[in-house]
From TrEMBL:
UniProt KW keywords: Amino-acid biosynthesis, Branched-chain amino acid biosynthesis, Transferase
Native species: Paracoccus contaminans
Subunit details: Dimer of large and small chains.
Coiled-coil annotated residue ranges, if any: none
InterPro entries registered for this protein in UniProt: Acetalactate_synth_ssu, Acetolactate_synth/TF_NikR_C, Acetolactate_synth_ssu_C, ACT-like_dom_sf, ACT_dom, AHAS_ACT, AHAS_small-like_ACT
GO CC annotations, alphabetized: cytosol
Job of this protein: Catalyzes the conversion of 2 pyruvate molecules into acetolactate in the first common step of the biosynthetic pathway of the branched-amino acids such as leucine, isoleucine, and valine.
One of the GO BP terms on file: isoleucine biosynthetic process
Protein name: Acetolactate synthase small subunit
EC number(s) on file: 2.2.1.6
Amino acid sequence: MTLVIEKGASSQSAYDLRDYHAAGEAQHTLSVIVDNESGVLARVIGLFSGRGYNIDSLTVAEVDHTGHRSRITLVTRGTPAVIEQIKAQLGRIIPVHEVHDLTVEGPSVERELGLFKVAGTGDKRLEALRIGDIFRAKVVDSTLESFVFEITGTSDKLDAFAELMRPLGLSEMARTGVAALSRGR
């Protein structure tokens, strides 16, 4: 099956078409501390795919070199009952040490890094630079035909930047996914 999007057609993601609020679903950011060993990420992802849950964002990095622990930060959507089920099932996976729902446990800080390649000349090039400045995006590569912007912030900020850059020649983007920590003690 081939999907063809005609020029001028909406490039909206399939995930944007569903009304999550009407279904009683909400987005949650989960922080999971696991042993840094092979196969752990596959087990976590397997839990989601096996039960039909979607992962909107996923980041993994070692956070304790001496204890060989990694933090998996994932963003998912679901009803309160589904989120509780996900947390309980994650907690039962053997190498999982902690599961935190940062969305309900209190204030947290969430950031994402994005790289955006914008190709254009003339007025479009100047407008891309102007918008980049407004968003505090850093130009990390420049040629006569394109720029690569680096931007950090919330996922909503990166989404807004991408929307404004599309008509100016956005040709590629790479995003890290959400990294998050709870605030305070």
